[in-house]
């Protein structure tokens, strides 16, 4: 575009590495948990049954659908941050290259899928602890772990990270469909 | 005003993505695992899972002989077998089969040096249990012990829950 040049949105120095690291880490955690559940749908159904919270008629659907949901959310989040990182690096090195894809949409929608899931997990774990049930967590991240404060803390940390990332995405606003904006150079 | 309009469009786009992804993932999941979903809808999930577990164990743990609750109780009453509790230590300390030795999963890396097995005759009959019917730990430990040379290893798959629910004796402490 004549008279225009690409510029990187100014962000605080510490935030630049922190956001993609957190985002890709969170996405990878969801991908890993999704794969574990995807590989063992019967075990996951058994784990959901043990919580005694969901009607049996819905346990099968939850055990079949949740792993796919975690996989999709994790994959989109990782892709969204990889696109942003690629674009930023390309501009930083003065390369005329853009992915041309809307990474911001991937990031926001995947975070919108992840946040309610984590909120639900924390609620379910809290209720189960309060009821005194000693059952396998079925979280998919660490094997053979029982419901307890450790599992709740882990989900609370992930929830905090996802919440912060979503808040930053909302602050960036819709004016940047992606990480780069076009600006008019000062004459 | 213009900014609010942009934000509204953006929120709408986000929502469309989220709803589409939810519909897509649950449709794919249901299609892939339709027998599981169908059994659940029909209220037959527990039977379905039990059947699938039995099929899997018949292949995965085919060399391990399993015991029913009555057989396990009779064996314990004889008092000649070593009983191993394969649950986590905290659960073992709360309640366990009297005389059982605790070998929790975290100790399986160094089974050879485990105090519970030190000096044990490899011909001695061993009965292992874990928490409940759905847990595989008793079977997994049985495979490991067989690999170490213990020939007469049996797994009580009903687990401590079945034992406790039958009202059989139980001990606390370590």
**How is the quaternary structure best described?**
heterodimer
* Unreliable parts of chain A: 1-7, 175-187
Averaging pLDDT over every residue of chain B, what do you get? Answer: 90
Number of helices of chain A: 5
Q: Any idea of the CATH class of the largest domain in chain B?
A: Alpha Beta
Radius of gyration of chain A: 20 Å
Number of strands of chain B: 5
CATH superfamily of the largest domain in chain B: Rhodanese-like domain
User: What's the pLDDT, averaged over the residues of chain A?
Assistant: 81
Sheet with the most strands: spatial strand order of chain B: 1-5-4-2-3
Assess the beta-strand content of chain A as a share of residues: under 5%
> Helicity of chain B, in percent?
40-55%
CATH architecture group name of the largest domain in chain B: 3-Layer(aba) Sandwich
Largest interface by residue count?
Answer: A-B, 34 and 36 residues
Separation of termini of chain B? Answer: 70 Å
Poorly predicted residue ranges of chain B: none
Number of domains of chain B: 2
Question: Secondary-structure element order of chain A, as H and E?
Answer: EHHHHHE
Could you give a quick summary of the protein structure above?
With 187 residues, chain A is mainly alpha-helical. In chain A, 67% of the residues lie in helices and 4% in strands. Chain A is built from 5 helices and 2 strands.
């Amino acid at each position: 575009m004549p008279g225009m040049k690409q510029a990187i949105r100014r962000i605080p120095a510490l935030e630049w590495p922190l956001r993609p690291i957190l985002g890709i880490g969170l996405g990878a955690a969801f991908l890993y948990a999704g794969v574990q559940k995807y590989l063992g749908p019967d075990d996951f159904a058994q784990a959901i049954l043990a919580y005694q919270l969901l009607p049996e008629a819905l346990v099968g659907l939850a055990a079949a659908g949740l792993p796919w949901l975690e996989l999709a959310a994790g994959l989109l989040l990782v892709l969204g941050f990889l696109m942003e990182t690629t674009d930023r690096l390309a501009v930083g090195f003065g390369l005329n290259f853009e992915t041309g894809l809307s990474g911001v949409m991937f990031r926001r929608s995947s975070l919108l899928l992840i946040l309610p899931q984590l909120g639900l997990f924390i609620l379910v774990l809290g209720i189960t602890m309060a009821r005194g049930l000693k059952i396998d967590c079925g979280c998919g991240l660490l094997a053979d772990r029982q419901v307890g404060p450790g599992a709740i803390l882990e989900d609370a940390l992930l929830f905090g990270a996802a919440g912060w990332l979503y808040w930053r995405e909302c602050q960036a606003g819709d004016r940047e469909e992606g990480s780069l904006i076009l600006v008019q150079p000062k004459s | 005003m213009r900014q609010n309009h942009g934000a509204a469009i953006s929120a709408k786009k986000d929502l469309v993505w989220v709803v589409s992804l939810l519909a897509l993932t649950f449709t794919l999941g249901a299609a892939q695992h339709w027998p599981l979903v169908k059994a659940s809808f029909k209220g037959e999930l527990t039977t379905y899972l039990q059947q699938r577990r039995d099929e899997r164990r018949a292949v995965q743990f085919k060399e391990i002989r399993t015991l029913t609750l009555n057989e396990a109780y009779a064996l314990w009453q004889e008092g000649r077998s070593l009983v191993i509790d394969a649950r986590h230590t905290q659960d073992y300390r709360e309640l366990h089969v009297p005389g059982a030795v605790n070998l929790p999963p975290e100790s399986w890396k160094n089974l050879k040096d485990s105090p519970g097995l030190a000096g044990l005759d490899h011909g001695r009959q061993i009965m292992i249990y874990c928490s409940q019917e759905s847990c595989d730990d008793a079977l997994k430990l049985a495979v490991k012990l067989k690999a170490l040379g213990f020939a007469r290893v049996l797994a009580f798959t009903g687990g401590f829950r079945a034992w406790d629910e039958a009202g059989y004796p139980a001990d606390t402490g370590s």
